[in-house]
Write a structure and sequence with these properties.
Layout: E1 2-4, E2 7-9, E3 12-16, E4 19-23, E5 26-30, E6 33-37, H1 45-53, E7 64-66, H2 72-75, H3 78-82, E8 87-91, H4 95-98, H5 109-117, H6 121-131, E9 141-143, E10 148-149, E11 155-159, E12 168-172, E13 177-181, E14 185-187, E15 190-192, H7 202-209, E16 218-221, E17 225-227, H8 231-239
The chain binds zinc ion.
């Protein structure tokens, strides 16, 4: 699905850890090369490659990866990508986690134990293998709130903490389109705030929504897909 000219939404389905989920990375294309926004879960590498090949690209020809944040479903295929010449961009506060210098925040032992208890046995083995080999890669470019990246007609970096401390959303003013990462969700076609069960700091996450541009028309959420037109009005309703 095209998000806007030069931006293709990839659809990566996954069966695992006791459920099915679809996530939506984005490939940006142009004279500036190919840039992937978020990379899918570990184990979605083949699906990612197939989705890229369907639009004439490959994991091996990516120039950049922009990560909205450190969570496993966003950095899952980073090691394979970053093994090449790809430049990795993320917010300054997420870098220690993405680089493996700090333990990924959602991977605290208590939460992991709870998750394991709710998994079928086959999934448990898969999960434990993942735990002992979490994805990581060097972050080459540290991003800051309000920064304008001179790529694809302009990308505004908006620091939207709450879901994680260094979570960012990406705004494309020319297309009035926001890639929200996990700062927002789309549930049954409706735009919603972040998921409370996976957002440790909900007050901060809700305050982040107030920072979003007033003229945003479309929001692409990583979990749930596209909402719009009329996103700005809906965001106002959510903020209340
Ligand atoms: Zn996520």
């Amino acid at each position: 699905m095209q998000l806007f000219p030069g931006a293709e939404v990839l659809e990566l389905p996954m069966q695992g850890f006791g459920g099915t989920s679809v996530v939506y990375p984005v490939l940006l294309m142009g004279e500036e090369g190919a840039t992937l926004v978020d990379t899918g879960f570990p184990g979605q590498g083949d699906a990612l490659e197939a989705a890229l090949r369907a639009i004439g690209h490959s994991v091996s020809d990516l120039d950049r990866v922009i990560l909205t944040h450190q969570d496993i479903d966003h950095i899952g295929n980073l090691p394979a990508i970053a093994a090449g010449r790809t430049t990795v961009l993320a917010h300054r506060l997420e870098a220690p986690y993405i680089e493996g210098r700090e333990r990924l925040l959602k991977f605290n032992p208590e939460r992991m134990q709870r998750m394991l208890e709710h998994m079928p046995e086959a999934a448990q083995a898969q999960f434990k293998a993942l735990m002992s080999n979490l994805p990581k890669a060097q972050v080459d470019v540290l991003l800051e709130d309000g920064e304008e990246l001179p790529l694809y007609g302009g990308i505004r970096v908006i620091h939207t903490p709450g879901h994680t401390p260094g979570h960012i959303s990406l705004y494309f003013p020319r297309h009035r389109t926001l890639i929200s990462g996990d700062a927002m969700r789309v549930v049954n076609g409706q735009l919603e705030g972040p998921g409370p069960e996976v957002t440790p700091d909900m007050p901060t996450a809700m305050a982040s929504l107030a920072k979003l541009p007033q003229d945003v028309d479309y929001v692409l959420s990583y979990h749930g897909g596209l909402f719009g037109p009329g996103a700005a009005k809906r965001i106002q309703e959510i903020i209340g």
